[in-house]
Amino acid sequence: MLAIFNKGLVNPPQELHSPASLSSSRKPKHPEEIFNEFLISQSSNAFSINFGNAAALAYVPPENPNSVSQRWFCGLHNVYCMFMGSLNNLSSLNKQYGLSKGSNEAMFVIEAYRTLRDRGPYPAHQVLRDLDGSFGFVLYDCKAGTIFAALDADEGVRLFWGIAADGSVVISDNLELIKASCAKSFAPFPAGMSSAIN
Hints:
The protein has helices at 20-23, 31-41, 90-96, 105-118, 124-128, 175-182, and strands at 2-5, 47-51, 55-59, 71-76, 79-87, 133-141, 146-151, 160-163, 169-172, 186-188, 194-197. The chain is an alpha+beta fold. The chain has a single domain (2-197), classed as Aminohydrolase, N-terminal nucleophile (Ntn) domain (Glutamine Phosphoribosylpyrophosphate, subunit 1, domain 1, 4-Layer Sandwich), CATH 3.60.20.10. A hairpin with a 5-residue loop joins strand 8 (160-163) and strand 9.
């Protein structure tokens, strides 16, 4: 999966900007180049959504739908979520949020986000602490211009983030893509129920 957010949407920590990138022979790439290279490198079942200059999401479903490493993509009410991993307590969470039994993890994250956004005031960590499993997700609310991303603490799922040539934030589960795209300005996404809401 790949998510790119314009520098106006996300303010990454200053530590993510590496001064070594300025003197490195490998320069960071521009978002369009990163996005196109990701799509070209994937199988034909990859798809993407572009939100003008604000954001771009690209997703590749698992080749084997019964695979242990589940991946979900969902878009509802102008909110889009890419989810990797699984929630052990999805059934009880769906019941708690009034969702159908057939709702997957990405659908649940969208509903939890909408509850956080519309019916608050719930701090993000309160919603996240109820999630039990091995997971990482990136959610984008294109109407509100909000990004919500989290990674659990058990490190069963890995995400990385970095800075593109124009200052955009790049998030992916593909370390090689992040290294090649962001030069030295990248790091593992913070684990342990970390979240970022703008």
